[in-house]
Structures are given as structure tokens and as C-alpha cells.
């Protein structure tokens, strides 16, 4: 391994580590803000716990979450924090595919791509099937 390849690998490892670190920090910050807003408003518990709760992940749409952020909707912050938390390991897998592709390691690109497909199926497809 040349010095340039070793530096590129270290850079990719650093990027992956930072993505994981900042993803978790951002997610925790959003959750804390959402919980604080929920405690401040003293409302929203019925929305969270009710039978018609919008927390059904198969029907939540990203524009609906983002539209609640400017109005300081506690539920929007909490759900966005959870989305960021779930997206963080998915981003790690995507960065892993990029890293293996840069190393020209086809086997691990293939294996990691299967892992990514499984994650995306579990996140997007399975909830829709379960609620049919």
C-alpha cells in the first residue's frame, strides 16, 4: 500500500467516524429540543399517544416533518431526531461502499450493497407491508 493509499484510507475512516459522531449528536440534540418543547407547551401528549397518532412510520412524509420545524412543533423535532438517528448507520454503509469501491474491492462492495438493500427494505418496504 502506497503512502497516498494509506492517507486516503485514513481520510475515509475519519470521514466515517465523523459522520457517525455528528449524526448521533444531531439526533440527540433534535430529540432534546423536541422533548423540551413538549414539556414547555404542556401539550402534544394526546397527539403522540392517541389512536390516530401520526407516528406511524409508513405514513409520515418528510415535508410534513420539515414544515413543523419553523413553527417549533415538538413532534416534528422528535420525529426528525429519530429519522437522523436511523439515517446515521445507513450513511455509514453508503460510505463503506464508497470506501470499498475506491479500494477496488468488488467482493466487499457487493456484500455492503446487499447490507444497504436490506436496511432500505427494512426501513421503507416492511412497514408498508405490515400495515396492509
TrEMBL record:
<feature type="transmembrane region" description="Helical">
    <location>
        <begin position="75"/>
        <end position="95"/>
    </location>
</feature>
<keyword id="KW-0472">Membrane</keyword>
<keyword id="KW-1133">Transmembrane helix</keyword>
<dbReference type="Pfam" id="PF07843">
    <property type="entry name" value="DUF1634"/>
</dbReference>
<dbReference type="InterPro" id="IPR012861">
    <property type="entry name" value="DUF1634"/>
</dbReference>
<feature type="transmembrane region" description="Helical">
    <location>
        <begin position="20"/>
        <end position="39"/>
    </location>
</feature>
<keyword id="KW-0812">Transmembrane</keyword>
<feature type="transmembrane region" description="Helical">
    <location>
        <begin position="107"/>
        <end position="130"/>
    </location>
</feature>
<protein>
    <submittedName>
        <fullName>TVG1210382 protein</fullName>
    </submittedName>
</protein>
Amino acid at each position: 500500500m502506497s503512502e497516498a493509499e494509506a492517507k486516503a484510507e485514513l481520510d475515509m475512516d475519519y470521514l466515517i467516524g465523523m459522520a457517525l459522531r455528528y449524526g448521533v449528536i444531531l439526533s440527540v440534540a433534535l430529540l432534546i429540543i423536541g422533548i423540551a418543547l413538549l414539556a414547555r407547551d404542556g401539550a402534544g401528549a394526546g397527539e403522540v399517544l392517541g389512536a390516530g397518532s401520526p407516528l406511524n412510520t409508513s405514513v409520515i412524509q418528510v415535508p410534513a416533518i420539515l414544515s413543523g420545524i419553523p413553527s417549533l412543533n415538538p413532534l416534528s423535532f422528535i420525529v426528525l431526531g429519530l429519522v437522523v438517528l436511523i439515517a446515521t448507520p445507513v450513511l455509514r454503509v453508503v460510505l463503506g461502499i464508497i470506501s470499498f469501491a475506491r479500494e477496488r474491492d468488488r467482493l466487499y462492495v457487493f456484500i455492503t450493497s446487499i447490507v444497504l438493500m436490506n436496511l432500505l427494505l427494512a426501513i421503507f418496504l416492511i412497514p408498508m407491508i405490515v400495515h396492509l
